[in-house]
Amino acid sequence: MKSIKKPITSILNKQVLVLNQNYHPLLICTAKRAISLAFLGKVKVVENYKQRVSSPSLTINLPSVVKLDKFVNVRNNKIVLSRKNILKRDQHQCQYCLKTGVPMTIDHIIPKEKKGPDSWENLVACCHKCNIKKGNRNLEQSEMKLIRKPKQPTRIHYIRQFVKRDQSSWKPYLYMGNKELRAIA
Ligand SMILES: [Zn+2]
């Protein structure tokens, strides 16, 4: 194993999306792990990268998405409600004007003064300009619109952070459109 050259190692370290038996995204592992699980019959390869990997005896397509053969029951670990996680969920994009790449703040959709709670449904990433514009008003009064309804992030939101351009094969399983993929590429 010591003789494995760097390019092969880096290919084998490529990230692979692991789906549950019902196609729900579960986690990410390395291609090396995915290949060995496939050989053991524990996963089925669903999608491949363009690259192939060769050993002296065989050449195979490099898997990009695999699916578990047996369903595993996983508890949906709750993600902590924090400024950092709100920004992550909203991909550092102002949820009013779509701006990215500018300093972000957190907006209470229903203002705190109007008893708006600190919750996944009431907090969104917001640029300073929109935050000032909205001020202490709620949505109707400010006549501002959210680009999407904020929700508690799921495992899918978490995994979405890891999607890179050459992982476009993951996106149907993460319910991502082209627009969302470009935003994080
Ligand atoms: Zn904005």
Structure summarized in a few sentences:
With 185 residues, the protein is of the alpha+beta class. The protein is built from 7 helices and 6 strands. It has 2 domains: 97 residues, no CATH class; 60 residues, no CATH class.
How would you characterize this protein structure?
The protein is of the alpha+beta class and 185 residues long. The chain has 2 domains: 8-75 and 156-184, no CATH class; 83-142, no CATH class. The protein is 25% helix and 23% strand. It contains 7 helices and 6 strands. The chain has helices at residues 6-12, 31-39, 83-89, 128-134, 139-142, 155-160, 178-184, and strands spanning 15-19, 25-30, 43-54, 59-68, 104-108, 123-127. Strands 2-1-4-3 form a 4-stranded mixed sheet, with helices on both faces. A two-stranded antiparallel sheet has the order 5-6. A hairpin with a 4-residue loop joins β3 (43-54) and β4 (59-68). The longest helix has 9 residues, at 31-39. The chain is elongated and about 70 Å long. Bound molecules: zinc ion. Zinc ion binds at residues 94, 96-97, 99, 126-127, 129-130. The site of zinc ion has 8 residues, from β6 and α4.
